[in-house]
Amino acid sequence: MDTTTLLLREIQGSIDFFLHFTNLDPHSPGFGLTVDCTKAPHIASIAASGFALTAWVIASERGLLPRQRALDITRGTLHTLLRNVSHQRGFFAHFLHMDSAQRWGKCEYSTIDSALCLNGVITAAAYFQDEQVRQMAAELLERVDWRFIVFETEGKTRFRMAYNPDKGGDYVSGEPGFIGQWDMAAEQKMMYLQAAAHLEPDVARRLYHGFRRDTGRFDGHDIIITPGGTLFVYQFTEAWLNTGAYLDPDGVDWFANTRLAARANRSFCLAHAQQFKTYHANSWGLSAGDCPTGYEVAGSTPALHEPYHTGTVSIYSAIACLPFMPDETLAMIAYLYREHPQTWGQYGFFDAYNLAVDPPWYSQALYGIDKGCSLLMIENYLTGLVWNTYTNSPYIQNALRILNFSKRTGAQQA
Asked: Which residues neighbour 134 within 8 Å (Cβ) at sequence distance 6 or greater?
């Protein structure tokens, strides 16, 4: 099978995943919510639901769903987000009951997971150009109280990571309240875009400059790195924002940064191929996701500390490198499909695999955010649909102006 056909089959499988693992019961308060992981199909993830909103855009554009059906699902999802989903000042609970849309246990109200959901909201509103969708999207975006999570520390303006009001709640050590801070370069760049129009311009700009730009070296180039070197953090904002078309206020090329990080991740795997049988030229990608013991966050150099890895290759995170290093990614996709059919199923590729354990382990699970990220990146590689829809939306264009991003000449396109 040629790689283009394989990519199209993966897109179809990904859309089928979202159709089969999203609550599409029109009588349910949880309509439109998408499962966190197929291991626990009764738990929804607010972030996965944002990827699903973007999946309906792809499905509509490709004719994989009738446009009216995709629009109806989108309208229903936004209604659920507005009326039924548990939130604190517009920030959603990370995990939800699939049926009721209510907060799962004492999970945190997560800023990044809310932002991932809102990226889907922005994309849907820009694509469908439907008055109902536009009004609900505007209400959802206006409802978020970004000032609630802004604080000053060490002369920097930063966002909190999460909020949990419950003693003994998730991530709460000691008294309940705010959890962590976005003080490092990671996947949160979308948050500065979403907040820009809701804060004073100088506050919005200080926030964007408030996280550290730690750097490492690879192949003679500096990379702005994340502490653990995990691959997905270079991909989540970039799945929606066409970073190839803009430079940030300091001239940072985030597209080139992701490309270097992807190359470094693959190079790290090759350097450890003697120790871990899974790693080689056509099998690489260290990220967060399924693993033989449950769930792990793996990474590579360059990083702030010694990266953790166990021989598990994150298939989705490698696929999501497609726009940044297409030749190596296409070679891996073809290799896995041909040589490791255990990595492929009804919905396309599973999450991960590991040949360095005995017996060799092949994931049978799918995570909504993982399947979503690889789907978006395949579409961006083939057509640029998500990049163009999201980045050119009035909401994001306004944010880019406020933050002083500059349009590049010779921009990277799909």
From this structure: 125
Indicate the residue type of 163: Y
DSSP assignments along 334-369, one per residue: HHHHHH-GGGEETTEE-SEEESSSSS-EE----BHH
Give 188-232 pLDDT, tens digit per residue.
Answer: 999 999 999 999 999 999 999 999 999 999 999 999 999 999 999
User: What distances in angstroms separate CA 335 from CA 304, 329, 344, one per listed residue?
Assistant: 32, 10, 12
Domain map of the chain by residue range? 216-408
pTM: 0.97
Q: What is the DSSP letter of 209?
A: T
Please give the helix or strand (H or E) that residue 247 lies within, else none: strand 246-247
Name residue 243's amino acid.
T
pLDDT digits (tens, 9 = 90+) for 70-112: 999 999 999 999 999 999 999 999 999 999 999 999 999 999 9
Write down the CATH number for the domain with range 216-408: 1.50.10.140
Contact 214, 224 (CB under 8 A): yes
